[in-house]
Specification:
eleven-stranded mixed sheet, five-stranded mixed sheet, RNA-binding, single chain, alpha+beta, 23 strands, about 500 residues
Length: about 500
RNA sequence: CGGGGAGUAGCUCAGCCCGGUAGAGCACACGCUUCGGGAGCGUGGGGUCGCAGGUUCAAAUCCUGUCUCCCCGACCA
């Protein structure tokens, strides 16, 4: 075997490993425009499965899809003070059109709050028109200085939900509900456990009153902000005059929320489950769940085996599981390629299960089932192979989540900790450090400056330590919150 | 924008110091033998050596300029 077929290992260089996996498993490629990314069919297939699952969850909670323009009048961006300040440096601006300079430049949306709430203002008159529960699937552009495939690209695909409510309580509840949906999706579908909670002021979305976040831990122990949900208060409704007549006959500004997840999730998936053999996909999101590799030596064997494999794939592909839909099975009948080469290729691409079918198997009315990441080969009867596959897929989905959760907990640190010990953890292995914080932004800034670690989140009760630190890690003052520190992507 | 690398075949790179017909491995195409963990042999296709100047009988190689990409920082889903 030549060395150039092998991947860089995660231990040797996590970043290099990540880039190699993304490129070689054909998820994405670099584009001619620096900072942009081409998503290839394999990567897009994963995104499509994510979209479908999320979309179902949004619909089930009363949301509807709509679409708003890519181009936004520049003046819209300046109407909300914090919003302008936050996004101005990363705006792409269109200054010419139709061969002429435009009277007012247009910005390419970095997010759509402004244009959406300007439209909401037209559509809402009475409290009876509320709530508006909208979502859009779209692309956005942010002029990032440094980019990484999927994790930070100038253009990315996402969904952004935007809602308007009659009361702040209802909006708060909505922001919380969507955070919960994100968490369910990340854990249930991606097998990626997250810590949920509230962002500190410095990490809050530009224009929000409160930002909730799902934070996941990658295999290099850095944090990934995987999804956010914002309570926008009345900041945008005041900027865009989004008013309604109340039940009592007065007028009031509406209360907004927005929430989004992006193609960054694909990067999170890679960095959560990938191994030194490449990608590992949770079955629920794998475009192909099972690949069938026929094995043969002579022509007559090939004919016999490939035909049997075709029948098997057709039978299993038609076989309706109770959940989640038809089995996504693929026959790799390419000739002139040895089975071993196919194994490596499908493992690199993260396909959860492989079914090997050879002459000896056919004679015994069986096939060999192998789980991604396991060298263990299990002979299964062709009569019940569908059940065996379904069972293995379900088990893998669970095992991936458990393994990721164990890994995260093994790299989480709790209790009263000294700032020196904290620095050592952050500089050495990294991880999530639950520590006391006096609530002072200056302390947060100091730690960021000195260690590059940031407060990822003020965790929700469920994630808080049984015995949280009572004193601020840096100043020793009484702690106002227990917070999660980590270096982040 | 600061610091560090690199531009030579589709990919990874050697050749450059010391100028003299453009190379290797992988990939690709064809043929034969192979096929239960990355096949072997043979044959073949593929390059204005990032770009522009200069020095020279002669430049991938030396000189000048310029562009691009990657990594580390400042910005962030």
């Amino acid at each position: 075997m030549s060395d150039d077929k092998k991947l860089t290992t995660r231990d040797a260089d996590f970043s290099a490993w990540y880039n190699e996996v993304v490129l070689r498993s054909e998820l994405a490629d670099y584009s001619p425009v620096r900072g942009c990314m081409v998503i290839r069919p394999h990567g897009y297939g994963i995104w499509e499965r994510m979209q479908r699952a999320l979309d179902d969850m949004f619909k089930a909670t009363g949301h509807q899809n709509a679409y708003f323009p890519l181009l936004i009048p520049q003046s819209f961006m300046t109407k909300e003070a914090e919003h302008v300040e936050g996004f101005a440096p990363e705006l792409a601006v269109v200054t010419h059109g139709g061969g002429k300079e435009l009277e007012e430049p247009l910005v390419i949306r970095p997010t759509s709050e402004t244009i959406i709430y300007s439209m909401f203002a037209k559509w809402v008159q009475s409290y009876r028109d509320l709530p508006l529960l909208y979502n859009q699937w779209a692309n956005v552009i942010r002029w990032e200085m440094r980019t990484r495939l999927f994790l930070r690209t100038m253009e990315f695909l996402w969904q952004e939900g935007h809602t308007a409510h009659a009361t702040h309580d209802e909006a708060k509840e909505e922001a919380r509900r969507m955070l919960g949906i994100y968490r369910d999706f990340m854990e249930g579908w991606m097998a990626m456990p997250v810590v949920t909670g509230v962002k500190t002021d410095s990490e809050r979305f530009a224009g929000a009153v409160k930002t909730y976040s799902c934070e996941a831990m990658m295999q290099d122990n850095r944090a990934l902000q995987a999804g956010t949900s914002h309570d926008l208060g009345q900041n945008f409704s005041k900027a865009f005059d989004l008013k309604f007549q109340t039940e009592e006959g007065g007028t009031a500004f509406a209360w907004n929320t927005s929430w989004g997840v992006s193609t960054r999730l694909i990067g999170g998936l890679v960095m959560t489950h990938g191994d030194d053999g490449g990608l590992v996909l949770p079955p629920l999101l794998a475009p192909i769940e099972v690949v069938v590799v026929p094995i043969y030596r002579k022509d007559d064997e090939r004919d016999r085996v490939v035909e049997a494999a075709r029948n098997l794939v057709q039978r299993l592909g038609d076989w309706e599981r109770r959940s989640p839909g038809r089995l996504r099975i693929h026959l790799d009948a390419r000739e002139g390629m040895k089975p071993g080469a196919k194994y490596y290729e499908w493992e690199l691409k993260g396909v959860p299960l492989r079914l090997e079918l050879g002459p000896r198997d056919l004679d015994a009315n069986q096939a060999v089932l192998v789980r991604r990441g396991s060298k263990q080969k299990v002979a299964v009867s062709l009569d019940s192979v569908g059940e065996d596959i379904a069972e293995a897929l379900a088990a893998m989905q669970q095992d991936l989540l458990s393994a990721a959760r164990e890994r995260r907990e093994a790299n989480s640190y709790r209790g009263q900790i000294s700032y020196d010990a904290f620095k050592e953890i952050i500089n050495d292995k990294g991880g999530f450090v639950y520590a006391g914080w006096n609530g002072d932004p200056a302390v947060e800034a100091q730690v960021k400056e000195e260690t590059k670690a940031t407060i990822r989140v003020i965790p929700d009760e469920e994630f808080r330590s049984a015995e949280p630190a009572t004193r601020c890690m840096v100043t020793g003052e009484r702690a106002k919150h227990e917070v999660v520190w980590a270096r982040a992507y």
